[in-house]
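Duplicate of #3305? Posting structure anyway:
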C-alpha cells in the first residue's frame, strides 16, 4: 500500500550513501538471500535492489544479467513508497506499469513483488524483490509474503553488519597508522597470568627492550628495569593497586635507558578479569611527554619571570608622582597604583570596573565617559582634562591619558593610562591669560591714542590732512588685525568670529559695505586656518587693496564690486583679487605708490609669497601666491616639532 512518505528524498539518499555499498563487488551473503527469495517465491528472478538518484543498482541478482537499470523504469521506486510488500499481479493490466520498457521489452516482466529495505530510522533504501515473465493473478501466498519481508529484514541486518565491520576496520587501520607514524605513542598488552607483555616497536624502544622479544612477549620485569630509581617503587605500587581495584591505570614517570636521554611518559591502561574476578589482561598505551614537560618547565620559568616583572612594574608605578592605571581590552579597570588611592582616599578595588567615573566632577562625567568609549571603539589614544575629587572632597583639574597595548596581530590586549594633577598649572594658565588680555587691552588703547594723536596733528597742520587720514586708516587696519588675533574671553570671542582667513577678511571689509549693509567684496573658495603671525601682513595687504579700490577702482563707483577667490593648491595657497564695474583702466601706473610698495613688502617680505598685478581694461586683477603654511606658521612649526 502506497502512503505519503514521512521522509524527504534528500534524507533517503543521504542514508543510502552512508552505507557505502553502491557499486561494490558481489558478496555471498547477499547472493544467498536473493537465491533463497527466488526459491521460496518460485520466481526465476530475485534482486537486492538499491534505488539511487537516477538508477536502481543490484547488490545481488538471480536470473538477470544487467547490474542496474534506469530509475525511470524502476518498479522498486514505487515499492519504497509503501510500508509493506508491493505486488503487481499482471503488469500488462496495471495502468502504471503496462507501458514500462521492462514490460514491453526484455526481460518482459509480467509479475513483480518487492519488500522495502528500511533503516531503523524509517528510511527506505530499496527492495528485496522477485520477478516473473508470467502473470500471477493469485499473487503471493501469505507464507511467501511473510518470507519476503523476513528476508528483507535480513538484508538490512547484513547492510548494518557490513557498515559496522567496515567502520571497525577503518578505526583499527587508523589506530595502527597513527601508532606507526607517531614517535611518541607505544602500545602493550600484558597477559597477567603468564606474565608476558606483547608490545609494539615504539613501546619497546622507549623501555630499551629488544623489539623481537617484545613481539614474542617479555616479562613485566624486562620493562620496569627502565623506571627511574626515584619513580620505580611508586609505579610498581600503582600497578599492584590497579590489579587489585580494577580501576583505570594512569601514571606519569621517568624512563632511564643507558646511552639515551631521560624521557618522561604518561601511561594509561585498563585491567580485564575472567569470570571469577582474577585479572587476566592489562592492555594500554604509553605516550612520550618529554617535550610537554619541557614546555611546562619553561612555562613555570615564564610565570616566575612574569611575577618578578609585575613586581618591578608595581614598584616603579607606585614610585611615580602620577596616578597610573590599567584596563583589560574591553576597558574594565582592574589596576591602580598606590598614588591613585592616596589621592582619592578610596579603598583598594573600590573603583574597579566603571566606578572610576563617579570620582569625576558631575559636569565632566558624561564627556569623560564618551571619550573613553570612543577610544575603546577606535583604538585611538585617550586624552582628556577633567576635575577629579581629592580625598578631602576638593575637585582638582587632572590630565588623563591612555595608550593601547597591541599583540603581534594588532589586537588590543590592554590599556595603560595615567592621571596627572594639573590644577596648579591651570591656575597659572588662567593668570597668564588674564595678563595677556590686559596687555592686549593696553595695546588696543595705544592704537586708539596714536590714531587720536594723528587726528589732532592733522587739525594743527591742515596741509597734512590727507596724509593723516591715510595713516589713520592703516593704523585702524592694524588695530582690527590685533583685535582679531588677541586673546579673547568667551564673551568677546563671538564679536570677531572664528580664527579663519575668511572670518578675518569679512571683519576687515565691513567698512566697505554698500548703503544697505551688503558686502561689496565677495569672498569665495577654500578657507584656511589663520594665526597672529600672519594677521598684520594680511591686514595691511588687503587694507591697501580695499582702500585703493574705494578711491580709484571698482568700489569708487556705485554697482562696482570685488571678487576675492581663495584656493588651496597642494603646498600653495592662491588668493585672486578681481575688480569689476569700476572706471576703465588705462594701463600700468607710471610709478608705484606707497600702498603698492607696502603690499609687495607684505606678500614677498613677510609671507614669503609672490605677487602679480594685471592692469586689465575692466579692472585690476591681482594674484597672491603663498606657501600653504604662510597663514598658520605657528601650527606648521608645531607639526614639524611633533614629527621629529
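Output from current build:
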Amino acid at each position: 500500500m502506497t502512503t505519503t512518505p514521512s521522509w524527504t528524498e534528500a534524507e533517503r539518499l543521504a542514508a543510502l550513501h552512508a552505507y557505502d555499498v553502491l557499486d561494490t563487488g558481489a558478496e555471498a551473503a547477499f547472493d544467498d538471500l536473493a537465491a533463497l527469495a527466488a526459491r521460496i517465491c518460485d520466481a526465476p528472478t530475485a534482486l537486492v535492489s538499491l534505488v539511487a538518484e537516477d538508477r536502481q543498482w543490484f547488490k545481488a541478482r538471480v536470473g538477470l544479467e544487467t547490474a542496474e537499470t534506469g530509475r525511470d523504469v524502476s518498479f522498486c521506486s514505487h515499492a519504497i513508497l509503501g510500508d509493506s510488500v508491493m505486488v503487481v499481479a499482471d503488469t500488462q493490466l496495471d495502468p502504471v506499469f503496462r507501458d514500462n520498457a521492462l514490460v514491453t521489452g526484455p526481460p518482459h516482466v509480467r509479475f513483480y513483488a518487492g519488500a522495502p529495505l528500511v533503516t531503523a530510522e524509517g528510511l527506505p533504501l530499496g527492495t528485496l524483490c522477485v520477478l516473473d515473465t508470467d502473470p500471477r493473478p493469485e499473487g503471493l501466498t501469505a507464507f511467501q509474503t511473510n518470507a519476503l519481508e523476513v528476508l528483507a529484514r535480513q538484508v538490512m541486518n547484513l547492510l548494518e553488519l557490513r557498515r559496522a565491520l567496515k567502520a571497525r576496520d577503518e578505526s583499527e587501520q587508523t589506530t595502527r597508522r597513527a601508532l606507526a607514524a607517531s614517535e611518541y605513542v607505544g602500545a602493550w598488552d600484558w597477559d597477567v597470568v603468564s606474565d608476558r607483555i606483547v608490545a609494539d616497536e615504539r613501546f619497546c624502544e622507549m623501555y630499551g627492550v629488544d623489539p623481537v622479544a617484545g613481539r614474542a612477549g617479555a616479562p613485566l620485569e624486562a620493562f620496569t628495569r627502565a623506571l627511574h630509581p626515584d619513580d620505580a617503587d611508586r609505579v610498581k605500587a600503582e600497578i599492584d593497586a590497579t590489579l587489585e581495584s580494577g580501576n583505570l591505570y594512569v601514571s606519569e614517570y621517568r624512563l632511564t635507558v643507558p646511552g639515551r636521554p631521560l624521557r618522561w611518559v604518561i601511561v594509561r591502561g585498563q585491567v580485564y578479569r575472567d569470570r571469577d574476578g582474577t585479572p587476566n589482561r592489562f592492555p594500554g598505551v604509553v605516550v612520550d611527554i618529554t617535550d610537554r614537560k619541557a614546555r611546562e618547565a619553561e612555562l613555570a620559568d615564564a610565570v616566575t619571570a612574569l611575577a618578578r616583572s609585575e613586581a618591578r612594574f608595581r614598584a616603579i608605578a607606585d614610585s611615580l608622582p602620577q596616578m597610573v592605571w590599567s584596563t583589560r581590552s574591553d576597558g574594565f579597570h582592574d589596576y591602580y597604583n598606590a598614588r591613585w588611592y592616596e589621592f582619592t582616599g578610596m579603598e583598594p578595588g573600590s573603583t574597579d570596573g566603571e566606578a572610576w567615573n563617579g570620582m569625576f566632577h558631575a559636569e565632566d562625567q558624561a564627556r569623560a565617559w564618551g571619550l573613553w568609549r570612543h577610544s575603546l571603539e577606535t583604538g585611538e589614544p585617550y586624552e582628556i582634562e577633567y576635575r577629579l575629587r581629592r580625598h578631602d572632597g576638593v575637585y582638582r583639574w587632572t590630565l588623563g591619558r591612555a595608550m593601547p597595548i597591541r599583540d603581534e596581530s594588532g589586537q588590543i590586549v590592554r590599556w595603560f593610562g595615567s592621571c596627572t594633577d594639573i590644577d596648579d598649572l591651570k591656575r597659572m594658565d588662567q593668570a597668564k591669560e588674564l595678563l595677556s588680555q590686559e596687555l592686549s587691552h593696553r595695546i588696543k588703547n595705544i592704537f586708539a591714542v596714536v590714531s587720536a594723536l594723528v587726528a589732532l596733528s592733522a587739525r594743527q597742520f591742515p596741509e597734512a590732512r590727507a596724509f593723516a587720514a591715510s595713516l589713520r586708516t592703516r593704523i585702524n587696519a592694524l588695530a582690527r588685525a590685533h583685535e582679531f588675533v588677541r586673546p579673547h574671553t568667551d564673551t568677546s570671542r563671538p564679536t570677531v568670529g572664528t580664527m579663519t582667513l575668511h572670518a578675518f577678511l569679512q571683519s576687515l571689509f565691513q567698512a566697505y559695505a554698500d548703503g544697505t549693509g551688503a558686502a561689496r567684496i565677495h569672498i569665495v573658495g577654500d578657507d584656511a586656518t589663520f594665526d597672529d603671525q600672519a594677521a598684520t601682513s594680511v591686514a595691511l595687504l588687503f587694507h591697501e587693496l580695499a582702500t585703493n579700490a574705494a578711491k580709484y577702482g571698482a568700489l569708487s563707483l556705485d554697482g562696482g564690486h570685488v571678487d576675492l577667490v581663495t584656493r588651496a593648491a597642494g603646498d600653495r595657497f592662491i588668493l585672486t583679487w578681481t575688480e569689476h564695474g569700476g572706471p576703465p583702466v588705462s594701463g600700468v601706473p607710471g610709478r608705484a605708490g606707497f600702498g603698492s610698495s607696502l603690499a609687495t613688502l607684505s606678500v614677498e617680505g613677510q609671507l614669503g609669497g609672490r605677487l602679480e598685478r594685471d592692469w586689465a581694461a575692466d579692472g585690476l586683477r591681482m594674484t597672491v601666491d603663498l606657501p600653504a603654511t604662510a597663514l598658520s606658521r605657528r601650527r606648521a612649526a608645531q607639526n614639524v616639532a611633533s614629527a621629529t
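Confirmed duplicate; merging threads. The chain is about 40% helix and 25% strand. Residues 142-181 form the longest helix (40 residues).
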